[in-house]
Amino acid sequence: MITTLLARITPPCKDVTHLASQSLDRPLPWTTRLKLQLHYWICEGCAQYRRQLVQVREALRHMATSSSTPEQDDSQLSRSAKARLKDAFRSKTE
Known about the structure:
Layout (H helix, E strand, L loop, with lengths): L1 H8 L3 H13 L4 H13 L1 H22 L13 H15 L1
Helix pairs in contact: 1-3, 2-3, 2-4, 3-4
């Protein structure tokens, strides 16, 4: 019953994904932030999407502040790891 009520007063998932991205770029009105939080409580998919956005943002910030550049990075995947990744990508697209 509470979930149904929250679903009626919160924006749909399509809008939530857009607003989640916007919330990382600029402050949203408190009413919008409240509606997003309520939506995250009832929708694990949108909550996970938000967590992933935050992780990507943090990773990009870390890369931007890191002193090493891709040309200086000595870590590379092994040939077998590259082959496994290629096979996995091919199987997903087929």
